[in-house]
Amino acid sequence: MQIPQHYSAVPGVLQDKVILVTGAGDGIGRTAAMTFAQYGATVILLGKTTNKLTAVYDEIVAAGYPEPAIVPLDLKGATKKHYQDMAATIQAEFGRLDGLLHNAGLLGVLTPFEHIDLPTWQDIMQVNVTAPMLMTQALLPVLKQSAHPSVVFTSSGVGRKGRAFWGPYAVSKFATEGLMQILADELDQTSLRVNCINPGATRTSMRAKAYPGEDAQKLKTPADLMWLYLYLMSDDSIGVTGQSLDAQPK
Ligand code: NAP
After folding, report:
1. Separation of 71 CA from ligand 1 center, angstroms?
2. Residue 28 above 90 pLDDT?
3. β-bridge pairing 69-72 and 99-101
4. What angle do CA 249, 208, 227 make, to 5 degrees?
5. Which of 21, 35, 123, 206 to mutate to test the pocket of ligand 1 (most atoms within 8 A of CB)?
6. How do beta strands 69-72 and 244-246 pair?
7. Over the range 211-221, which residues count as b (16 or more CB within 10 Å of their CB) and which as e?
8. For residues 189 and 212, what is the distance between their CA atoms, to the nearest angstrom?
9. Cα–Cα–Cα angle for 174, 125, 185, nearest 5°?
10. From 46, 168, 201, 211, which residue has the greatest number of CB atoms within 10 Å?
11. Ligand 1 centroid vs 39 CA: distance in angstroms?
């Protein structure tokens, strides 16, 4: 299957799809949620800070897009039971889930390997790896109710090649790539596709934390990346699975 280097979504390409976005209150996730809604999807907004989710909800409703749902959840403390309850609610409300974008992420602090501390390591693994694993596990039955479900994980350049000082964050993104590959391989004979997006350097608060001295105006914005998010959530990517794709191809 040929994967495009760019994609122009037609209006309504996500019509009638139900898509859950984690970290939907800020950064790339916020733009992804708005964009999916703009293209016709009913979006389930999951995030840590309720007032950020409410602001996205209001913006979607004000724009006249399909009314979203809100799931306030801190992935750091969430348990298997939280995800099972969420899956049951989605099943009852919508009867299926067509798309799942694992976008929420924690950077931690950039530090030499010798100074990595266990609590920070555990928090990053919890939010970036364990939470998406448990959430996907719980949501698989409801995803399988969709004709062509799409699961998208969010990786990073440092999840493909290690870089000094990126410690736990980089390790968590290597794990994300592995999780995606294993799931895609297991589900190869089904209609469920699983892929990874590497957003590349993008103008968000996470990037500003990692590179405080950088001129953010020179960076791509989340909106610049949306072609790939739309592609992977639309039926135009049916058959594409197990891929790790760049939202800013060289
Ligand atoms: P961001 O602006 O910091 O946004 C991260 C989002 O994740 C926020 O909505 C945040 O919610 C949510 N989140 C963090 N911890 C959470 C938790 N415990 N429970 C629930 N939600 C939580 O980051 P971003 O730059 O948009 O990054 C989005 C994804 O792209 C991440 O996976 C990141 O690793 C990846 N990425 C980004 C870049 C880049 O240059 N920006 C490059 C490569 C990869 P709150 O706002 O409520 O805390």
Report:
1. 16
2. yes
3. unpaired
4. 30
5. 206
6. unpaired
7. eeeeeeeebee
8. 45
9. 45
10. 46
11. 22
179-199 in b/e burial notation, b at 16+ Cβ within 10 A? bbbebbeebeeeebbbbbbbb
What pLDDT, on the 0 to 100 scale, is given for residue 5?
Answer: 86
Q: Count CB atoms within 10 A of the CB of residue 146.
A: 18
Among 136, 153, 134, which Cα is nearest to 79's? Answer: 134
Is the pLDDT confidence value at 2 over 80?
A: no
Tell me the per-residue pLDDT of 159-206, one tens digit each, with 9 for 90 and over.
999 999 999 999 999 999 999 999 999 999 999 999 999 999 999 999
Residues 6+ apart with CB under 8 A from 244: 155, 160, 177, 180, 195, 196, 198
Residue 246 reports pLDDT greater than 80: yes
- The three-class DSSP label of residue 22 is strand
pLDDT score of 137 more than 90: yes
Ligand 1 mean position to 241 CA, how many Å?
Answer: 24
Give the residue numbers marked as catalytic. 169
Query: Does the pLDDT value for residue 36 go beyond 80?
Result: yes
Query: Can you tell me which atom of ligand 1 is nearest the CA of 24?
Result: 9
| Ligand 1 neighbour 102 (Cβ under 6 A) | no
**What pLDDT is recorded for position 249?**
93
DSSP string for residues in 149-179: -EEEEE--GGGTS--TT-HHHHHHHHHHHHH
pLDDT at 86 over 80: yes
Mean local confidence (pLDDT), 33-55? 98
Predicted TM-score (pTM) of this structure = 0.98
Instruction: Tell whether ligand 1 has an atom less than 6 A from the beta carbon of residue 207.
Output: yes
